[in-house]
Specification:
CATH superfamily of the largest domain: 2,3-Dihydroxybiphenyl 1,2-Dioxygenase, domain 1
Strand content: over 45%
Radius of gyration: 16 Å
Number of strands: 8
CATH class of the largest domain: Alpha Beta
Strand order of the largest sheet: 2-3-4-1-5-8-7-6
CATH topology of the largest domain: 2,3-Dihydroxybiphenyl 1,2-Dioxygenase, domain 1
Order of helices and strands: EHEEEEHEEE
Length: about 120
């Protein structure tokens, strides 16, 4: 069966990172480092980042009364930035934010069920 080509080419090359909401940050860090073999590369009181290969996984502590744990964000890596914003606008995706820093550029989109989808270009 032939796969249907997407109507808009954003130059996706893979997953850059994902963020998960967790109830117990310490427990989540222990699970991903001790049981899954990932490396802890950054931490703060309510946030930690673990790494597996070239991909990272952000762990964010849920605030009291927040919805259930789960995926908060998926960041997809793109191979070029030039024209990306225009291609996204033509696709009718809703752009929520656009940022640039020393590491690269990010376009944040609203995905299904409120999931944040980031398109990331690394410098």
């Amino acid at each position: 069966m032939a796969t249907k080509r997407p109507p808009h080419d954003f130059g996706l090359t893979g997953i850059d990172h994902a963020d998960l909401l967790v109830r117990d940050l310490t427990k989540a860090v222990r699970f991903f480092t001790e049981q899954m073999g990932m490396s802890l590369i950054a931490s703060a009181p309510a946030y930690a980042v673990v790494q597996c290969g070239e991909q990272t996984l952000g762990l964010r502590c849920l605030a009291p009364g927040s919805p259930k744990p789960g995926a908060q964000r998926v960041a997809l890596r793109v191979n070029e930035w030039l024209g990306l914003r225009n291609r996204v606008m033509r696709s009718r995706a809703v752009i929520q934010d656009e940022r640039e820093d020393e590491a690269g550029r990010t376009l944040s989109l609203r995905g299904p069920d409120g999931l944040q989808i980031d398109l990331v270009w690394r410098a």
